[in-house]
Amino acid sequence: MERAPLGDAADSILAARAADGDLRAFEVLVRRHGPLMRAYATRILGSNSDSDDVVQETFITAWERLPELQDPAATKAWLMRITSRKAIDRIRARKQDQPLGEWDAPAPESESPHQRAEAASQRERLTRALGTLSEAQRQCWTLREIGGHSYAEIAEELDLPPSTVRGLLARARQKLMQEMEEWR
Amino acid sequence: MTVTANFECELATELESVVRGVPGVNTLYPTAPLVARIVGAIVSGFTQREAASDLVTITMGEAGLNVFAAVRVVGSEPATEVCRLVFDSIATVLAAHSPVPIDTIKVTVASIG
Amino acid sequence: MAMTSRHDDDADNDLLEQLSEIMDRGESPTDAFLNRAPENRIAFDALTRFRAMAKNILDDDVASEPERDDSWVTGILSNIHREARAGRSIPVSHPSPKADLSLTEGAVRGLIRSAGDAVAGTFIGHCRLEGDVATPGSPVTVNVEASMFWGERMPQTAQQLREAITTSLLHHTELNIVAVNVTITDVHLRRNPKDEDRSAPNG
């Protein structure tokens, strides 16, 4: 048997090597998880305009903090967590001049039912349904359902009272169900 | 002062090509950031200006010239042997060209293979 | 559907929240609960579909992304501070008092990884040099973690790794290595079957 390509190695091995300074191992992690992190950042941000920057910041932070990573097998979840934090930092910076009230404002009604009916895939339908949520609702929902954060974690990340998070999530879920169920 | 700066600059460029020519040396790493940290320890009065090449760093201290190079070593020759060869090559050039005494020549192997 | 009329909003929210919390705990609602009212089951089914969709949405997003050039990877790698992992300075001897020669600990760890990876079917993970590496001659123990290819025999692989690492360290460094300890922490499979596997003779 010949020397195996590093791409065959598990995250735990790659993360341990990168923590020891192996840039090649880190590159494999970047290629393996970068696209997913970009998709996650795009979902949290609501557009992909800043998602490349978020991914870059995430990996730079990850490289610096890798030696502190306790469980290298949980590398992906750890990277996703840094991604959401960086994305939220962006949103916070963006929102600095706006009152919080606006943040939960309903999204503009931009699409007619006819346009919506043309959406074929489940993914497109869900994306459109998410588009009808307020930004705050969408962020809470994304962190909860895609990121797997607890209510308490979301409250901490978004700097909101847990009761507000609970309310935003409940409204998000109900709205999504209404939007999606119309397709059945 | 200007004369010294020019001299360092030319010397750094020459040393860079000499180090690159040592068998087993694959890459020269920039050393400037590390040097910036030890600059404080160098007594002022001489120029502390970094040479134009940031790959081989030359600074003037109280006891003479300080040279620093960081390299990547590849091949079957022992990394320690290549490291000593880099030192010897730098020392030979300095002995031939430098009007000032040599304090230290620091060679770091920052990567092997 | 049954849950969309306005006056029911609060009740719907309560139901969704209740169900979500049960599902967040990784549990399923009881049959008794689901059979209590038709909207209970409708809501549960919808939430279940939703969760499955949400779980897959990032993968679907990735799959629908157009192929990108490599600049995002190089952009990240060029912003990484490699020197941060140099570690300790391991002296290299020289008769001249002017010489200040060393290998970085990071370089030696790289050497160990490369020696270990050259043993068929293994990857080195974490690697530690225990001992006073800065003092010439002082005893140093190497502890490495490794992943081996599925199906290889563990004691033999560990022995091969020890030998490869020891040989390489003796060749390239002046460290006084007293032991190389190998711990197999992972087993891996080949992720991408090679082309030659498909075009093998007699295949």
Automatic annotation (TrEMBL), chain A:
InterPro entries: RNA_pol_sigma-70-like, RNA_pol_sigma-70_dom, RNA_pol_sigma70_ECF_CS, RNA_pol_sigma70_r2, RNA_pol_sigma70_r4_t2, RNA_pol_sigma_r2, RNA_pol_sigma_r3/r4-like, WH-like_DNA-bd_sf. Residues 123-176 form the RNA polymerase sigma factor 70 region 4 type domain. It holds the Pfam family Sigma70_r2. Residues 29-95 form the RNA polymerase sigma-70 region domain. Residues 111-122 have a biased composition (Basic and acidic residues). Keywords: DNA-binding, Sigma factor, Transcription, Transcription regulation. The keyword Transcription applies. It comes from the Bacteria. The keyword Transcription applies. Coiled coil: none annotated. One of its GO terms (biological process) is response to stress. CDD domains: Sigma70_r4. SUPFAM superfamilies: Sigma2 domain of RNA polymerase sigma factors (SSF88946), Sigma3 and sigma4 domains of RNA polymerase sigma factors (SSF88659). GO terms for molecular function: DNA binding; sigma factor activity. NCBIfam families: sigma70-ECF. Belongs to the sigma-70 factor family. ECF subfamily. This is RNA polymerase sigma factor. It comes from Cryobacterium zongtaii. The lineage of its organism: Bacteria, Bacillati, Actinomycetota, Actinomycetes, Micrococcales.
Automatic annotation (TrEMBL), chain C:
This is Asp23/Gls24 family envelope stress response protein. The lineage of its organism: Bacteria, Bacillati, Actinomycetota, Actinomycetes, Micrococcales.
